[in-house]
Specification:
294 residues, 2 domains, 26% helix, 7 helices, 11 strands, Aminopeptidase
């Protein structure tokens, strides 16, 4: 989410982790640059829970055809969980430019190298300090787990899907258990534009498998199909399973949908013949949501 002035003190404390010798005055000037200069943007990664804390920040500057990472920091208590990687690869959700650059020092260059940046030494820019230029072209299609702050985007996608299918209704978006950690909405983006979504949930198991992530109803906007959006959503589901130490990912695919079957095969899924059983409780409005194949 974009930097919110109401969290200024909390954001500033995390940002200080990425500012060289962050005196009070220097940190104040840095914050004011993001707040006043339209060419600079500061985004905040919140933690989980009903009252989430600031877990990380990423500060950007837009250049000609490039976005520069000016600051990237994760709160000390949240490190080692992949949040830095997540913030970098979520950039296509907030900007259309895919070419990313960053300048950093020897302490942080290993992070950029590990997540795929090419690295070039700039030499000893300051006395006794070697600096590095890091470059990466991000994929056009990415996906990320949505939070309550993305509910408007999710609602728009559901409304568009319902309009195409001849049904309506998005009332449950506001009631979705965003902080539950047993169910998630994954939103796929293409060059910064919301392009599709899927709802996923945890299927627990009482044995050593621990459980599976179940992917339900992947939908991609017609103009964004065959652009890698669905594959990105599946990749995000994979990451949820890996982060939770789960056995894998499961989903249902119709026997008369060969295109979807091929997508799942290419993504590494094995397809097994089975029957799908469903019992609808029509009082909950289930009869209205028989999505037409599109």
């Amino acid at each position: 989410m974009p930097h919110n002035a109401a969290r200024r003190t909390e954001v500033s404390a995390v940002l200080a982790e990425a500012v060289w010798e962050p005196s009070g005055e220097k940190l104040r000037q840095t914050m004011e640059t993001y707040e006043r200069d339209p060419g600079h943007r500061l985004y905040v990664r919140l933690g989980d829970g009903p009252e989430p804390e600031v877990a990380g920040v990423i500060g950007l500057r837009e250049l000609a055809g490039t976005v520069e990472i000016r600051h990237l920091a994760v709160a000390p208590g949240r490190r080692g969980r992949g949040l830095g990687w997540e913030m970098v690869f979520a950039l296509p959700t907030v900007c259309t430019c895919l070419d990313v650059v960053a300048e950093t020092d020897r302490d942080a260059v290993g992070f950029y190298r590990r997540i795929g940046f090419s690295v070039e030494s700039l030499g000893e820019v300051y006395p006794g300090t070697e600096r590095f230029r890091c470059r990466l072209r991000l994929p056009e299609a990415v996906a990320a787990v949505a939070s309550r702050y993305d509910s408007g985007t999710v609602r728009d996608l559901i409304v568009e899907r319902g309009r195409a299918a001849g049904v309506s209704g998005h009332e449950s978006v506001d009631d979705f258990p965003w902080e539950d950690r047993l169910a998630w909405v994954i939103v796929g983006y293409h060059r910064g534009q919301p392009a599709g979504y899927a709802t996923v949930c945890l299927l627990p198991k009482l044995d050593r498998r621990k459980g599976f992530i179940y992917v339900d109803e992947i939908w991609v906007r017609p103009d964004f199909r065959r652009l890698g959006v669905a594959r990105a959503i599946l990749g995000c589901a994979d990451a949820l399973a890996e982060d939770g130490g789960l056995a894998g990912v499961r989903l249902y695919v119709a026997s008369d949908n060969p295109a979807a079957q091929e997508l799942y095969r290419r993504a590494g899924y094995t397809l097994e013949p089975s029957l799908f059983a469903e019992k609808l409780h029509c009082g909950a409005g289930a009869e209205a949501f028989r999505w037409r194949q599109d």
